[in-house]
Specification:
Layout: E1 9-12, E2 14-19, H1 32-41, E3 44-49, H2 60-73, E4 77-80, H3 87-94, E5 101-104, H4 110-122, E6 128-132, H5 136-148, H6 157-160, H7 163-180, E7 183-186, H8 192-203, E8 207-212, H9 214-218, H10 222-227, E9 254-255, H11 264-267, H12 284-293, H13 299-313, E10 330-340, E11 359-369, E12 372-376, E13 379-380
Parallel strand pairs: 2-3, 3-4, 5-6, 6-7, 7-8, 8-9
Antiparallel strand pairs: 1-10, 10-11, 11-12, 12-13
The structure holds (4S)-2,6-dioxohexahydropyrimidine-4-carboxylic acid (DOR) and zinc ion (3 copies).
Length: about 400
């Protein structure tokens, strides 16, 4: 069937290397259905889902169960990151070729970190390790200190998980990767210093890549004051002094949204009890196209950061599955279409955003997955996504 794209521009389908679809376990926050519909509306044709569901994706059985859920519900293509818990399960999950093994450094200590790196190194094939880089001890020490001062001002959260916690974790992860010749991907890099550490490690032949979220790229700590817990995320938004921006994009490998939906009642709790996370699937491409319209970014940047690099890093081709860009996954964008970010119009269950009220110019108007139109002018059509 022919598709009329008028005077619009075609880009390769975007890959989101980092989403939390909360399925199984938290249907009030999101499901694979609602999350993947949000992805289609945002111009994403492939998503890689994180393992911190309930149960977490830490065993072969849970991995296969989530695969079944995704196959049944996803309207876009997908892959799954695996959690790490027990050595035997790491071996079993490895056979299923997960997008990566994800390690939350804010939750495990150094000894366990070394064990996991070693287990993954022992596998018969090379596997990527994704890292949430915030050092557990530093986070604990700083959080305890901020809590004990009695303040519940949302702004203090930035000091409860300071840049130092991230910088230390990035240093630890890259040192280990160098020593063991492991391949690692640092999720949501948010400070200039960590990016410098990654650059230096790359220069020393460390196999490390970096990811940035749209909020760490475009916002800073002042939004925590403006939006309260709506802007609460881990790692936190940074003071201008530490924060990264579009000028640093050439040093970054991937933009991943870290789409992390929660409910509004949860977000209305006090700062220490409200969950962290921002839903980004429907705002990312309009925000980035706006940067392109303002000549601060190029289409080439979008293709590299949200398509070519993620496909390469997460090894789509060598998994013997569909190679992205070769299966008619694309997104049509209207560079003249203007709008204002309005969370009430989101398809994700999480109808909030620190980008609320942002003016955008440039929006996805059609998303095509393996030749099937899945979104046309905001309307979504059922399609069964496939594993990549
Ligand atoms: O802000 C965050 N939200 N950071 C994480 O590491 C987890 C995520 C979530 O799952 O909500
Ligand atoms: Zn994370
Ligand atoms: Zn995340
Ligand atoms: Zn595809």
């Amino acid at each position: 069937e022919e598709i009329d794209i008028k005077r619009n521009i075609v880009l390769p389908g975007l890959i989101d290397s980092h989403v939390h679809f909360r399925d199984p376990g938290f249907p009030e926050k999101e499901t694979f259905k609602t999350g993947s519909i949000a992805a289609a509306c945002g111009g994403f044709t492939t998503v890689l889902d994180m393992p911190n569901t309930n149960p977490p994706t830490n065993t072969k059985k849970e991995f296969l169960e989530k695969l079944k859920i995704a196959e049944k519900k996803s309207v876009v293509d997908f892959g799954l990151h695996a959690g790490v818990d027990d050595a035997l399960e790491i071996k079993k999950i490895a056979e299923l070729k997960p997008a990566s093994f994800k390690i939350y450094m804010d939750l495990i200590d150094d000894e366990h970190l070394l064990d996991i790196f070693t287990e993954i190194k022992r596998l018969p094939e090379d596997h990527l390790i994704s890292v949430h880089a915030e050092d557990k001890d530093t986070v604990k020490e700083c959080t305890d200190k901020m809590k004990s001062n009695g303040s519940i001002d949302p702004e203090i959260y930035a000091d409860a998980r300071p840049p130092l916690a991230e910088d230390i974790a990035v240093l630890k992860a890259t040192s280990l990767a160098k020593q063991l010749n492991s391949s690692i991907h640092i999720c949501h890099v948010s400070t200039k210093k960590s990016l410098d550490i990654i650059q230096e490690a790359k220069g020393e032949n460390c196999r490390v890549t970096s990811e940035i979220t749209p909020h760490h790229l475009l916002l800073d700590a002042s939004y925590f004051k403006k939006c309260g817990n709506i802007a609460k995320t881990n790692p936190p938004l940074r003071d201008k002094k530490y924060a990264l921006g579009v000028n640093e994009l050439e040093k970054i490998d991937v933009i991943g949204t870290d789409h992390a939906p929660h409910t509004i009642p949860e977000k209305e709790k006090i700062v220490w009890e409200a969950p962290s996370g921002i839903p980004n699937l429907e705002t990312t491409l309009p925000l980035l196209l706006t940067e392109v319209n303002q000549n601060k970014m190029t289409f080439g940047d979008i293709k590299r950061l949200l398509c070519e690099k993620p496909a390469e890093i997460f090894n789509f081709k060598n998994k013997g599955k569909i190679a992205e860009g070769m299966d008619a996954d694309f997104v049509v964008v209207d560079m003249k279409k203007e709008g204002i970010i309005n969370p009430d119009e989101f398809k994700t269950k999480a109808k909030y955003s620190p980008f609320k009220g942002f003016k955008v110019k440039g929006m996805p108007v059609m998303t095509v997955v393996r030749g099937n139109v899945v979104m046309d002018n905001g309307e979504v059509f059922e399609n069964s996504g496939k594993i990549v």
